[in-house]
């Protein structure tokens, strides 16, 4: 199968960050050529008036929680979790997780995301199955925790490893190892989990320092701040991805940077849950960390829109430092594409020969995208999901002219399931 | 001309804030009935699977500045204004203002805005003409300032009054009186401007306390904080609308509230320009002010999207007060609709019998709008411009099934003009 995308404005995200006018040749699941291409292909997409960008990499979400969008709104955080989300999660069925994943996938595709990183504990095979079914790329774990009643480190690890082995030979889905958070996992589990990830050459993903409370709980128990603690037990390296990471000291940012670890900042969710503070993306970036962006789940966002997340991430830095020209639009776009790819270990995130063909076409001639004074500023500050026209993942067209196969059926099924469920 | 909207989920914004399943009958430019309607009309819109909301009222923008979207990005505020925006504005032609307004109008319509409040100084007749041409509703002034070289209070006032008289008999456009800001206008001009507004029964619109610097400049010169000063010269009453109003004391919020004046908070622009601080919407609302929302111009936003502005406004309050359940989604939606209508003095902002027919239909069955646990939360936190299907203003369909008449021509014309211009 080969596809030729003709006459696009291509935001390559290559080494030189070139923006080219030209064509993209896709052969199989890879980009075979970028530039002027004259070649017979199975299909041709006329991209005149369109902009081709590498699809967004959303590095932290809980995709199946899309079924909880808007559930338990207007409650303080503690009541929201205890009275609404956790009781609801305890009753979640495999079917709800499967269809919730498909729903979240449709929303991601419509907003230009082609690759995501999940974290969930139950029915994770359903998440992986649904993701492959719709044709999205993802890094998926069977996440673990053992510091709550009825949980056992050994059993957690066994299930996580079995999941990883089951999904290790797939194309779109890759497994990773994930421990929920420093305050929900024993030191023993954390150490063994990371050892397992290293042994299997898998990425490691966890929450850290989302709220101020957990920072002080860890400090009290371990006499170290969270990243100092995690570093002391060997968890902070270039194969680790830490979500949130907002309540940190400059010394901790230095630890993350020096070890070239990745962080996934989720600004929309952090503000919605009022976790306080602003994640210091600027300092993480300056000190060598790989900065990436995530939406978190739709239960706390309440969308999965990476355009919104880019703009929010950028604006919060300007606000926090009282500096309008901090972090360029190019930097923010890097966080959402090429840096995300690096964090998850996929060969995507840019439009270059030899990269996986994960490409999004945007309407350039939409009123919110005109004029063209600054293409990157338009992408980061002006674009929204209404501009997404076509989405190609792994060389396959998953959205064509704003149409996704079976989307209507997915929506009806989720509506039916959530009627039964609540 | 009559239109029947059948089988919609209607977010009425009536006194009881009811959400109904039913029909909306439009006769001429008014809503004639809401509920179950069986009546022959000139046209029928099948709104099954759609949600009808009152169109957003964007209470502060500079619509023609849409031609500057993304222009001079990445510069500190002072350089951006001095080296880019002001020199560019000095050269703006009537034609650029006219087509820039049409472009901004298309973007507003596509993002569900049916009514806006502008502030601009040059070629304001072109703004009014273009607004009426495309069928948007607006409050438009010929704004004034006299504290810069070459400006004269008398001439300013004369032109502002003549503009108001020219546009006072129109349907979609209503004039208002606007003075730019306390630091750009003499006390004499401010007093006379407000007297003129009172005499003609017009709304009064100005910037105030956008940056910390201007607050301290006024404090130094007038020995009063901006709202204390404005109140002492009779400018703060229920017919006044103050944009930004972010750098204020609680005492000033009390003055605004007691006098039932309106504020237009523009959170996206404030963050983008790094003005610092968070506008205390919660306190303004509690102390009796009429809180409304604006996008500001696309030069500093860089979009005109009220969905984004609602979400940003809400999330910044949660963040600022470390309180996830501060200000309900309903309150935020009120700010963006019914409160905006009150501030501008239009009989719109809700879907009720006798109101002006300014209605937006959204696709309910889009992946980012499902499930329906909480309709208001979905509107404020999950919806985006891709959900806007049809827009009716003043009883006339201005966007039908995502199509706006002449939009392609408007976009091409702006591209051509901005090519010449830069």
Describe this structure in words.
2 copies of one chain form a homodimer. Chain A is an alpha/beta fold and 422 residues long. Chain A folds into 2 domains: 2-55 and 349-399, Roll (Urease, subunit C, domain 1), CATH 2.30.40; 56-344, Alpha-Beta Barrel (TIM Barrel), CATH 3.20.20. In chain A, 39% of the residues lie in helices and 21% in strands. Chain A contains 15 helices and 17 strands. In chain A, strands 1, 2, 3, 4, 5, 15, 16 and 17 form an 8-stranded mixed β-sheet that branches. In chain A, strand 16 (388-393) and strand 17 (396-399) form a beta hairpin. In chain A, helix 7 (226-232) runs parallel beside helix 8, helix 11 (306-321) crosses helix 12 (329-336) and helix 12 (329-336) crosses helix 14. Chain A starts with a strand and ends with a helix.
Arithmetic mean of pLDDT of chain A: 96
Describe the global form of chain A.
globular
Number of helical segments with 4 or more residues of chain A: 15
CATH superfamily of the largest domain in chain A: Metal-dependent hydrolases
Tell me the major beta sheet of chain A. 8 strands, mixed
Enumerate the spans of chain A where pLDDT stays under 50 for 5 or more consecutive residues.
Answer: none
Work out the number of β strands of chain A. 17
Write the CATH fold name of the largest domain in chain A: TIM Barrel
Based on the coordinates given, report the CATH architecture of the largest domain in chain A. Answer: Alpha-Beta Barrel
Number of domains of chain A: 2
Q: Assembly type of the shown chains?
A: homodimer
Q: Based on helices, strands and strand pairing, what is the structural class of chain A?
A: alpha/beta
**Biggest chain contact:** A-B, 72 and 72 residues
Q: What's the CATH class of the largest domain in chain A, please? A: Alpha Beta
Measure the end-to-end span of chain A: 44 Å
| Radius of gyration over C-alpha positions of chain A, nearest whole angstrom | 21 Å
Helix content of chain A: 25-40%
Strand content of chain A: 15-25%
């Amino acid at each position: 199968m080969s596809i030729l995308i003709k006459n696009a404005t291509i935001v390559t995200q290559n080494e030189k960050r070139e923006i080219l006018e030209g064509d993209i040749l896709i052969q199989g699941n890879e980009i075979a050529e970028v530039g002027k291409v004259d070649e017979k292909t199975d299909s041709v997409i006329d991209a005149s008036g369109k902009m081709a960008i590498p699809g967004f990499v959303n590095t932290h979400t809980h995709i199946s929680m899309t079924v909880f969008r808007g559930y338990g709104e207007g409650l303080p955080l503690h009541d929201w979790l205890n009275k609404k989300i956790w009781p609801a999660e305890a009753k979640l069925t495999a079917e709800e997780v499967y269809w919730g994943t498909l729903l979240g996938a449709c929303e991601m595709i419509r907003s230009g995301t082609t690759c995501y990183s999940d974290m969930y504990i139950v029915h994770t095979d359903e998440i992986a199955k649904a993701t492959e079914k719709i044709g999205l790329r993802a890094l998926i774990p069977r996440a673990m925790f053992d510091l709550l009643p009825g949980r056992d480190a050994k059993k957690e690890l066994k299930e996580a490893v079995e999941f990883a082995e089951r999904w290790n030979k797939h194309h779109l889905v890759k497994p990773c190892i994930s421990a929920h958070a420093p305050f929900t996992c024993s030191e023993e589990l954390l150490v063994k989990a990371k050892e397992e990830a290293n042994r299997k050459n898998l990425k490691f993903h966890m929450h850290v320092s989302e709220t101020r409370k957990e920072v002080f709980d860890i400090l009290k128990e371990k006499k170290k701040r969270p990243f100092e603690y995690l570093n002391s037990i060997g968890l902070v390296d270039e194969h680790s991805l830490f979500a949130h990471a907002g309540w940190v000291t400059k010394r901790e940012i230095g630890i993350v940077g020096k070890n070239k670890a990745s962080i996934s900042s989720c600004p929309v969710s952090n503000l919605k849950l009022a976790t306080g503070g602003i994640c210091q993306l600027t300092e993480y970036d300056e000190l060598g960390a790989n900065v990436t962006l995530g939406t978190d789940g739709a239960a706390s966002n309440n969308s999965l829109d990476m355009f919104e997340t880019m703009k929010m991430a950028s604006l919060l830095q300007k606000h926090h430092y009282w500096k309008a020209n901090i972090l360029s639009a190019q930097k923010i776009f890097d966080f959402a594409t090429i840096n995300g790819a690096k964090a998850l270990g996929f060969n995507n995130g840019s439009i270059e020969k030899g990269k996986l063909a994960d490409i999004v076409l945007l309407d350039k001639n939409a009123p919110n995208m005109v004029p063209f004074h600054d293409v990157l500023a338009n992408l980061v500050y002006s674009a929204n999901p209404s501009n997404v026209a076509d989405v190609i993942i792994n060389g396959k067209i998953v959205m064509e002219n704003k149409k996704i196969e079976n989307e209507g059926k997915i929506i009806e099924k989720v509506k039916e399931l959530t009627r039964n469920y609540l």
